[in-house]
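dude i think i finally got it to work??
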Amino acid sequence: MTKGLLSFALLFTLFTSQAQDKVVLTNGDQMIGSIKSFDNGVLEFETDYSESNFLIDWDMIKDLTSTDTFIINMSSGEKYNGSINITDQTATINKIDGETISVPFLEVVYLNSVSSGFWDRMSISLDGGFTHSKSSNNNQLTVRGTASYLTTKINPDLYGNFLYNGVDANDSVRVVNRRNNYGGNFRLFIGKSWFGVTSADFLTSDEIEMELRSTYSLGLGYYPIRNHKLYLNIATGMALNNEIYNDAASTPSNSSAEAYLSADFNAFDLENVTITSNCQYYKSLNQASRNRVNFTLDVKFDLPKDFYVGAGYTINYDSSPGAEGVSDTDYIFQTSIGWSL
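look at this
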């Protein structure tokens, strides 16, 4: 009886260890556990002997063994469902349709288990900052956040950037300024590196007397660069812009059709630093002299426990602002501390 139990225990242990994932690093270190995900050049690996998951640079991996089925994205734009094993930095992908391919492992840019739940496919960040100056009772509060969901077919995302600034102009008057920018995108992947995209963007800014600018766009995009260190995508299409000014502007609402060109850049293999940037150019089709540009630049410095400190710069340029006497440029610089999932 004792021998039978011992044999069963040994077989169970052997089966369990074989079912787990294994990673061998270029320095010879080995880990047994479970692949959680791979994105932005970093493999997240869970083990039974550590309370926190290991974050491993992708180019430090020599061998990888797994029996799980993953969503696998390639630098070429190809997207597969299948298993992956790496031997001497060559990846063998067994697709669920039975086809097997071998590629250099650096061509793999994204992994996520198909058995993962909704939240495992989400990327979320939330940060904020607060400044107080006693001399003028100046309070400034900023809150920013992003959320993105990714599969082999779709990539919806949401974003928001909210600023409140209050300052005492004198003993009896307090001046309050708002600047709120929020919206979302929905990308539908087409073929390898192409995607269709529809977007909605909303801006409120007291600086330019804008109660609400709503921009709705539809376009076609392409990834000319996508690897385990950075990506760049460009898109072009048509947009509908509607503007409502606040009471101080005494300016009627305005609507216009626009052609647009945009670019998104993300560099994430920079020693705990991530740089993201977005630029959008809008050319009015019914106001020939009007051009608009939106530009953002964000830098994040990683801290332990998924926290980070960040700095961001946003500028909006409008060659023909609708309100009289309003500047053609509105910008904001923010520093913050945040958390990401």
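The chain has two domains: 20-116, 120-340.
im so relieved honestly
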